[in-house]
Amino acid sequence: MSAQRNRGIILKSRREIELMRSAGALVHAALSRAEELVVPGVTTAELNAAAEEIIAEAGATALFKGVTGPQARVPFPAALCTSVNKEVVHGIPSDRVLKEGDIISIDCGVRLNGYCGDSARTIAVGKVSDQVRHLMQVTQEALDLAVSEIRCGRMWSEIAGRVQRFVEGHKLSVVREFVGHGIGQEMHEEPKVPNYVDRRHRQTDFALAEGMTLAIEPMVTLGGPEVVYAGRDRWAVCTRDHKHAAHYEHTVAVTADGADVLTDGRLP
What we know:
Blueprint: E1 5-6, E2 9-10, H1 14-37, H2 44-57, E3 61-62, E4 80-84, E5 87-89, E6 103-112, E7 115-124, H3 130-148, H4 156-169, E8 173-174, E9 180-182, E10 189-193, H5 199-202, E11 213-216, E12 219-221, E13 227-229, E14 237-239, E15 245-247, E16 250-255, E17 258-261
Antiparallel strand pairs: 1-2, 3-6, 4-6, 5-14, 6-7, 8-12, 9-10, 9-11, 11-16, 12-15, 13-14, 16-17
């Protein structure tokens, strides 16, 4: 089954999916450890150090470390992406100190025994405003909605359209420039997995099939969907209007019965 291809999409065997679940469980452990440390006064570098220790102890590789970006001036230097407040994705861990009322989106990917897992979550630093809490809740529910809608034979655009309508129904915006992706032995495989529908993505639409493994990751903002690259290293992607953003992600396998989440912490 792993040799079958659908428009460049590599279908995975049950054995391969279980290897990906092991990688996903490690990602879950690294994210959970980082989340435990999120309090006012901690630095994003400290969160990354904790995750790197867990990944190293497991004999795994941090997927993001050494990756080059389209506008980046240096390879990505860390295991985690730590994106705070207006940062949507790809924030570099540093000596930045988290403050009460901040939110931080933490993204982690690993390769373990040749297979990858990728997941993200957004965490409140102490007490946050009701508006920001609403942003986090809607983004998490958008991911949950996408996972719950997965069925073999369904076109992805149907699910993406439902996610977009759900988010926009709450007067929030879906980021367009960054989408989910296939995942397996490589972090980024076919297909592209958007959280919205437009003419360009309809041309690359795909039918869900058993054995597909997808990283589904809605990114949602309090303001408009437009983003810009920022920072000296040109890695962090921020909202153009400086409004807060949230990001949640799971690696998911498509099965005959629907979706199997591989980054929820369950072991094979």
